[in-house]
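User: Quick one: structure for sequence A, then sequence B.

Assistant: Sequence A:
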Amino acid sequence: MQFISDIISHLFEWIQSLGYFGIMIGLMIEVIPSEIVLAFGGYLVSQGDINFFGAVLFGTVGGVVAQIFVYWIGRYGGRPVLEKYGKYIFISKKHIDHSEEWFQKYGTGVIFTARFIPVVRHAISVPAGISRMPLGKFTLLTTLAVIPWSALFVYLGYTLGDKWKTIDEVAAKYTHEILLGAIAVIILYFLFKWYKSKKKGSAV
């Protein structure tokens, strides 16, 4: 356990030494959960090492690139590859099952809202890649979701300062509200699709 703790400590030192690029690369390789990397980025902002907008920008780039990587694995490797190697990027069979269910039920629009839903958000890029969703649309929806997520955790890390490691308990109330909002958007999206299909059917 101490060995793992030492490795993580060295990773944070490495991220700090690289500044903006450390945050970006940390999110791209996802050795440490993105929320923690972003919170650490907020801590660096509080220390004056980097600025807030730069942290959010590089955090967004890193988060989007990480998801494009998963998208490409889904597109060219398929589910078998992800079931075998997904654990190395924190994606389990359970994540894949849930994300595929959501994707099939709500369509491509779920790429945005699912980013805020626990379990689903880590693997929603998998069915997007498998179904060969247009990369441009996938990237746009992913970026629009990653920006507020990155801004939130960088801000929380900034306000916590030296206590940034308590990010999980502090972020809980925010993520709960975001979750409710995301579910509301999904319901509205589903109702819109239902209304649209019903209107199209009555016009025939």
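Sequence B:
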Amino acid sequence: MAQTVRSLLAPVRALFGGTTLLIAGNSLLGVILPLRMEAAGYPVALTGVVMAAYYMGLAFGGLYTKRVILRIGHIRAFSAFAALTAAVCLAYGFFEFPAAWILLRMINGFCIVGMTTSIESWLNDRSSNETRDRVLGFYMLVFYLAIAAGQTLVNLGTGGGSDHLMIASTLIGLSLTPSR
């Protein structure tokens, strides 16, 4: 049975909205942190280590976030990970030394895995075997467009200030608000 795109995506529209906000905020964060480190005069190698810590968090998240999701459920897990990520975005403004940023990047990566795992599990649950390929295809489209949109937000705010951190935190926090 052929479905229109509208009827196919109606049950997951809120998830796509949350994904857009979450990924745009996280993408902005990934652009502004190295710019802040460069402005502070940190060596390029140190900037690379700080930014790579995110991927260490992703790896740990891949190992452990499933347990959190199974224990407290998709909605609570997503909410906890999003709230923690929003707080981490703001914490970068309080700690201007690389060791703290390494820890914050690891937490950020861990939480992003938890949120995307929650979203993708919901998408799998909300789609049938016949529609799953199209739903996940649209999800990936939304995901990558949100990355591009988030990176363009670097043009907002003042360079080197906390404006970008607040924008990223706000976007990630708003991913918690249901939309219909």
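The chain has seven helices and no strands. The two ends are 25 Å apart (CA to CA).

User: Thanks, that's what I needed.
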